Amino acid sequence: MTADHRLLDMLVCPVCKGPLTLNRDAQFRPHELVCAADRLAFPVRDGIPVMLENEARALPAEE
């Protein structure tokens, strides 16, 4: 289990406390943590997840 997996197991959505999915960019770096239930994507900046609701990106219905 890598550090990414351990961190992901500990983090939950700050809105609904549900599970998060890690999305990676083209270079396989962590890009954002997605809550499917709330349709929010929380950014990962410089390797640090920003778990603030007002910083999250709302996901469109097709994403």
TrEMBL record:
Gene3D superfamilies: 2.20.25.10. Pfam families: Trm112p. InterPro entries: Trm112-like. It comes from the Bacteria. PANTHER family: PROTEIN PREY, MITOCHONDRIAL (PTHR33505:SF4), ZGC:162634 (PTHR33505). Belongs to the UPF0434 family. This is UPF0434 protein GCM10009107_39460. The lineage of its organism: Bacteria, Pseudomonadati, Pseudomonadota, Betaproteobacteria, Burkholderiales. The gene is ycaR.
